[in-house]
Design a protein that fits this description.
alpha+beta, 5-stranded antiparallel β-sheet, 18 strands, 29% helix
Amino acid sequence: MKKTIRLGAGSGFSGDRIDPAVTLADRADLDYLVFECLGERTVAAGNARRLADPDTGYDPLLLARIRAVLPHVLRRGTTVVTNGGAAHPLAAARRIADLVGGRARVAAVTGDDVLDAVRTLDPLVWETGKALSAHPEKLVSANAYIGADAVLPALSAGADIVVTGRLADPSLYVAPLVHEFGWDLDDARTIGAATAVGHLLECAGQLTGGYYADPVTKPVPGMADLGFPYADVSADADAVFGKVDGTGGTLTTRTATEQLLYEVGDPTTYLTPDVTADFGAVTFEQVGPDRVSLTGATGRTRPDELKVTLGFLDGWIGEGQISYAGPRAYERARLAADIVTQRLADVHGLDPDGVTVELIGAGAAFRGLATDTAPTEVRLRVTGRAGSREDADVVGWEVESLYTNGPAGGGGARRSCSEVLCIRSTSLPRHLVHTEVHLMEGTR
């Protein structure tokens, strides 16, 4: 057994950069490279793509990521684990197997698609408190958060590239550690500590200064070449985080603390499919330049139920934008908004409750709490919900019409129209979720 296992964070979301992962794969001497590519919005979007084309549904950048790092992971013997299979991990694994051409063994993990199970069980939807069947919108997807136990058979079978669907973000990292160290998944203290490692790595560049930087209070050097982090994890689940020397960014106890608390409501009760993690006693120590150690994380018994992301098709949304600059920009943008909203109701019959107006540059992000009525420029943004594409498209049309029918000086009009994919959540007993590993031919 190795003394430590080195895990690298190759991506932190679907649209993340690729070149930092190549640097890690080439220079960090990794045992595992992880691509975290999935959010609640992106798994539902993947399902929408799969509905349109049954051979798609996986992350659009997944093949580009694998292609970019492949020479390095083959040369160094690094295993890749990713949830970039999104709504169709089996199709993604097949495409990757074609790309690899027999030089590595690829595995797909399926079973997170629980659409039939939720339709049968009809659980309560968290956001509304109503039974799933009481929702008039069209349900198109339901994906359960699966855990490290779903990945272990693939690693035990010798897979070099493991592709999953809605595998929980920290579990991407917990699975390799359990496989390498032979930990018991019922050892909540150790699995909780491993989950802390996974949580710190799951957003990649956020641990090394991304989403942390402020040029005045928290300057971060070299952000155009932000180095993604890795962790050296010991058999007792303590870890030291680092990044490749010479890359941009910074890794300090402050960046680690911010990432530890990212998207965590109660640090003592962080629920995952693997464990109820407890970060309450975590301690960080700066052990060198861009090197931070982690100790003190623990955990309690895992939840009995698994969270499920539901995707509904919920009509269409039309959007229009136009800018006003110079004297009285706010007043002219306000007049433009009044013209559009009146015409959407009087001429086109759109429900005013479904129309939203934002005056970007005049405090729109503060939602009326701090309006600036004297900005030098304002961008008007109008959105409107409707039941059909045709009805929603009039929103952008009316904004564009302001060119010759609205206030003076409007410019830069843009319009769009798209189908609304609404995301909600529920949970299922874990015994109703059945995962399976599919191995492709190949060997390294």
